[in-house]
Design brief:
455 residues; alpha+beta; 16 helices; single chain; eight-stranded antiparallel beta barrel
């Protein structure tokens, strides 16, 4: 018996099946960063960072003057003399102080700026090398080492001046010039806004001012539960005696009722417009919350930040059980303060809409409204605590008082109308301490708790 004949319709079916198979395999192998971009307009993290922290956002054209102004801003350089060092920048120019500050610091080496001329890639890289503190490293490069680095780029080494070649080479070797730009860089072409922004972020990294997002993974990751659990079990109570002396006096005086002590090395560095910070004490609750958000179709970056929570301990609660994760200490005025290991779990959602949907999920499944309530996550609280650093509908504004020492931070919340009193009271206890205040937006139940409500 011969092989069966395949008609045209069968051919179409086979082709369709192959296309569907290939598409399915491709979808299953999309990396996490691509998943993050789905459903929202993607912006490079460097663009977000520069815009949010420094209010720097380039237009479609980047001039020498604009880049000089941005460089001086991120490097915190200024020039106050009336006599300029740059020949073509008059004292009345908007670039006068920035250009002269860069020249005085050695970042700008020419006495002319040509402020309105478009910035070239070669000049941008050269400025970035000097602004990053790599000038002396570039001077150590001989011809062999320089050529070895430049072979990674699409540039003609014979057309480069030796100083430019060395600066470009050290930019490659040091990582100042990111690999994705190796094939894109054309030295004589005008710099793009994206490349200018990336260079600024890399410069800041050399000064310890730009760090990428810090997170364990995504809600969608299979191993996220294990990473969160391991982080929790390895954490210990944070006890910084210098900071505790100050805030415990504030608790004893009735100025505040409690505070959180965080280690800034765990900070997430997320885009706050899409981020919620959720506080709790039960690790089982955290794992269930991740599973719940995943079941509701939400995905987000996840950072788990153990912290120490301190609050007034009342005698009527009975004799406390002291553990490595829980301690009670006596203060003045016969008051007691309890220290408990808790955590903040931060979620950077894919979209602002997903961030807004978070509260509805909490109200339905993680907020206790009555005793023995069914259908909730384990250890749900009467007043769940979650905050946003940007305004969000149906959240209430409160004040977060922050005291920093080393890599530790004390956070204490208050109603806005009581903020001045709290800040003044902390300074009265220790005038040398710096107290920063910022507005955060909190869920309504916790706001009612600050108002004195039980539920």
């Amino acid at each position: 018996m011969g092989l069966p004949m395949i008609c045209k319709d069968d051919n179409k079916k086979i082709i369709w099946i192959l296309l569907v198979t290939v598409l399915t395999v491709w979808m299953l192998t999309i990396p996490a960063w691509a998943v993050e971009q789905a459903g929202s307009k993607y912006r490079a993290p460097e663009v977000q960072f520069l815009e949010e922290k420094y209010d720097i956002c380039f237009g479609s054209v980047v001039t020498n003057g604009e880049f000089a102004a941005a460089l001086a801003k991120v490097l915190n350089l200024d020039y106050t003399d009336q006599v300029g060092l740059i020949d073509d920048v008059a004292p009345g120019s908007q670039y006068f102080r920035a250009a002269n500050a860069l020249y005085k610091s050695g970042v700008l080496t020419e006495s002319k700026l040509a402020a309105d001329t478009r910035l070239s890639n070669s000049k941008a890289v050269a400025l970035a090398v000097r602004a990053s503190g790599l000038k002396e490293v570039a001077n150590t490069y001989d011809r062999h080492k320089t050529n070895a680095a430049l072979t990674k780029l699409k540039v003609s080494k014979s057309k480069l001046e030796s100083a430019v070649a060395r600066e470009l080479a050290v930019a490659v070797d040091s990582g100042l010039l990111p690999k994705p730009w190796y094939k894109e860089i054309q030295l004589d072409e005008p710099v793009t806004p994206e490349f200018a922004t990336v260079l600024l972020a890399r410069i800041l990294a050399f000064h310890g001012e730009y760090l990428p997002a810090n997170y364990l993974g995504y809600i969608a990751d299979e191993d996220i539960y294990g990473k969160v659990y391991k982080t929790w079990t390895s954490a210990k109570l944070i006890r910084d005696e210098n900071l505790l002396e100050l805030v415990n006096k504030a608790v004893s005086d009735g100025l505040i009722t409690g505070y959180n002590l965080r280690d800034t090395s765990n900070a997430h560095r997320f885009d706050e417009r899409r981020t919620i910070r959720y506080g709790h004490s039960s690790i089982k609750h955290a794992l269930q919350l991740i599973a719940l958000l995943k079941s509701e179709g939400l995905n987000a970056k996840v950072q788990f930040e153990p912290k120490t929570s301190a609050f007034i301990y009342l005698k009527e609660w009975g004799e406390p059980t002291i553990t490595p994760d829980y301690a009670v200490a006596q203060l003045a005025n016969d008051k007691y303060v309890a220290y408990a290991k808790e955590y903040d779990i931060s979620f950077e959602f894919q979209t602002i809409e997903q961030k807004q949907a978070f509260q509805n999920i909490i109200f339905r499944f993680a907020k206790k409204d009555r005793e023995n309530q069914q259908g909730l996550l384990c250890d749900s609280w009467w007043q769940p605590l979650y905050t946003s650093l940007t305004p969000i509908d149906s959240y209430q504004a409160i004040t977060d008082h922050v005291i920093t020492q080393g890599h530790y931070e004390i956070h204490s919340f208050s109603l806005p109308e009581k903020s001045a009193l709290v800040k003044a009271g902390l300074l009265l206890i220790n005038p040398a301490v710096k107290v920063d205040s910022c507005t955060v937006w909190v869920d309504e139940p916790f706001y009612q708790y600050l108002m004195g409500g039980y539920k």
